[in-house]
Amino acid sequence: MSAPGEFLTQPVKAGRVAGYAVLVVLGALAGAAGALVQAAWFPGGLLLALVGVAGLFRGGALVLGGMGGVLAPAAGWLLAAFLLMTSRPEGDFLFAVELGTYLYLLGGIGVAVMCATVWLPRQPGGPGARLGK
After folding, report:
1. Angle at 47 between CA 45 and CA 48, to 5 degrees
2. 8 A C-beta contact, residue 104 and residue 112
3. What is the 3-state secondary structure (H, E, C) of the chain?
4. How big is the CA angle at 48 (ends 32 and 100), to the nearest 5 degrees?
5. Angle between helices 99-117 and 68-85 (to 10 degrees)
């Protein structure tokens, strides 16, 4: 069992950093695609977009084995969502002011929080039985 904060003294591995970078890019792509899909087919598109980001967040947690695998694509998703919310000088913007947009933004944040807190895999090397036995 490792001591708290021991990961700070371990060397950074290039493969892990590349994995986080790929997940950030995938999160941004999922955010942009979800913004288009949720507006095109309202209830079904919204559910499809949220299930897609949930799969990405869960997959990131499983592949990288921890909360960083959820936070990296969530950061990319949030960055893409906020960039798409800003208006251009011409007055154009991608997100319309409607219920589906707010459900997509709040739902995506909620999915990221749920994936980071509930769906994490078990700690490797932990005991198979309850404590005290």
Report:
1. 60
2. no
3. CCCCCHHHHCCCCHHHHHHHHHHHHHHHHHHHHHHHHHHHCHHHHHHHHHHHHHHHHHHHHHHHCCCHHHHHHHHHHHHHHHHHHCCCCCCCCCCCCCHHHHHHHHHHHHHHHHHHHCCCCCCCCCCCCCCCC
4. 70
5. 160
38 or 47, higher pLDDT: 47
Tell me the C-alpha to C-alpha distance, in Å, between residue 35 and each of 13, 41, 48, 105.
Answer: 33, 11, 11, 9
Is residue 104 a contact partner of residue 40, using CB atoms and an 8 Å limit? no
pLDDT at position 1, please? Answer: 46
Q: Which residue has the higher pLDDT, 41 or 18?
A: 18
Residues 34 and 82: their CA atoms lie apart, in Å, by 13
Of 84, 59, 85, 79, whose CA–CA distance to 70 is shortest?
59
